[in-house]
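Everyone, carefully examine this protein record:
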Amino acid sequence: PEVFGLTKLAEPLRTDHPLSLRDAYPLMAADVRAWAGLTRCLRTGEAAFPRVHGADYWTYLAGHPADSLAVDRWMSSLTRLHLRTVLPAWPWAQAGHVVDVGGGDGAFLAGLLSRCPQLHGTLLDLPHVVAAAPALLARAGVADRCRIVAGSFFDPLPAGADLYVLKTILPGWEDADATAILRRIAAAMGPRSRLLLLEAIIPTGDVFDVAKLVDLHTLVLTGGRHRTRDDLVDLLAGAGLRLDRVVATPTLTVIAAGPAGPQLTSP
């Protein structure tokens, strides 16, 4: 029998639920071992994962396909929820071409393209990450509108798109690397291009927020961190970009930015 609605609350943990979050909850064994180094991590501010495993998080995943696939499934699980909350917060259908920078196996971009039939996309991520993208995009029926680029966001990016998306990417990197990523995007943008950061913003003050829990996990794995709005403004300015609009959603926040210069007209 149902007790205080717990049965309904647990339904998204089922694999067959349309918004299943089952893959979002289990930690990889490698993550658990990294958490054993939390004490030193808190003292030094350095990631625990490289010290425990002898390689940084991204290098480790490149050499461990099963764990890399688990991360893709984790992101895809969360993406189903993000698509329902983030897409209504921005007029995506007004764009012609969107580049998902560090877009993983393409789950978010596939969901976006399937909801916006006139939109074309480019998916960019490392070769071992985008290897699963062709099949995923084909299943979503959007492969003919999506180009796949195997590469790094530290290298020159496809130029001139209407939108560049960074979905939960910057928290995985320290400020210097995050600025380098943003500079690559700024260099690729046209005068009316927009960058959309999809992130959990850390609220100020001593209040509970789930972003703070995720922030600690990020610190353990990569040494990166989630940021406040002011932190993001500073990062954007350091890359020649200007904050243009902030839209909160029940999950991630949409932070829109454009090239520094004359004020853009918000949609």
About this structure: Residues 65-86 form the longest helix (22 residues). Residues 263-267 have pLDDT under 50 and may be disordered.
